[in-house]
Amino acid sequence: MIKVKRTYNVRxxxxxxxxxxxxxLSLVRNMLWNELVDIEQCAFDNHSFISEFDLNNRLPELKQxxxxxxxxxxxxxxxxxxxxxxxxxSFFALVKKDKTAKPPKKVxxxxxxxxxxxxxxxWKFVNEDTxxxxxxxxxxxxxxxxxxxxxxxxxxxxxxxxxKWLLDICVxxxxxxxxxxxxxxxxxxxxxGLKNLVHGVDNLGNVVVLKNKARRINRYFCKNISSIKTKMxxxxxxxHRWEYLNSVRKRLCSRRNAQIKDTLHIQSKxxxxxxYKTIVVGDLSVKQLMSTTGTNKRKKGIRKSFHESAIERxxxxxxxxxxxxxxxxxxLSERWTTQTNSLTGKLFKKNVELNDRxxxxxxxxxxxxxxxxxxxIMRRYEQYHIALVTTPLDVFSVATKYNVANLQTKNGNPxx
Length: 416
Known about the structure:
Layout: E1 2-13, H1 16-45, H2 52-65, H3 74-97, E2 116-119, E3 123-125, E4 130-133, E5 136-141, E6 153-161, E7 164-175, E8 187-192, E9 196-202, E10 207-211, H4 213-232, H5 240-272, E11 278-282, H6 286-289, H7 300-309, H8 311-324, E12 328-332, E13 358-360, E14 366-368, H9 369-384, H10 395-401
Parallel strand pairs: 8-11, 11-12
Antiparallel strand pairs: 1-5, 1-7, 2-6, 3-4, 4-5, 6-7, 8-9, 9-10, 13-14
């Protein structure tokens, strides 16, 4: 049995009084977050550290000082303490590499709504159209094919999106093993990039290419959003015209995010439906590529392009879709895969720059640089998994099949 985490979304229909109670829960959440951040920050300033266990032990004391904190479920309070602890753990790891790193921020406007998470307790489905959340009975409407009363939910998240109240229900389900495993010897190695989101080759020599549509969508909307921001800068803040332009900006951002999400879902599903038993992904460190220090310090365009491509989000979608199909996604280091000749296994004499879209493997064969990297990833996978009964990739036949030497001008074979 394979355990898979799934999230179901239901729509809530609270009354005016229930909406005020939800806003009060968010207010308590934000105030508690600020108090816990103060505790962690004070400890950090004194060169000490407070663990998650110690933060949880501080909660009764805070509830005595601030009685309105008692209105929030105890498990929800512990979840907030865990989020603060995790944020500072991430900050501690970051500050070792970058001394200019800033600690987690406090919530400036505590009245602004923030998602409230209830872990393990604090909710109950009373019947098919009513649930009790933090002692508040509220009407809901979900999918008719799912019996929410029988679900064993791990946690729920109370959200507000565009004036609508939503509840995310996180469930851990078990998938039965299939009676017959298909495509057990098919392996696909993919290289993630900017021009093509996916450029892959399988062990039978077939090439898979997916265009980077998310980047194109992002650029189209960012151009319009930038124009709106320019107009907003000339208006008085919170004036009627400024508020109108701000609503247009929010609407464009919402449409951009929705289209990017849909596109990534479609492309990841397309790749998962090819039914490869194993998909090998080059371990692309997006954080390092978007860093403003080191080799990327002056490469603002590269950092922006990786931000627009949403590569890490695509890999996460692909991973859980393959897991639901009883397939697996493996990440391998792609260090030097672009700079290595897939035919000889040796580094090119000259570095392959970003503007070099093709590489010369020998005097007669020239292929796409991403295809060369994908074949190197496949070869690396085969070296690490020698015991697997898979048909090895014939690199020479693939390079010959996708040779573009006749369409290129050699110019001294810069990559040889």
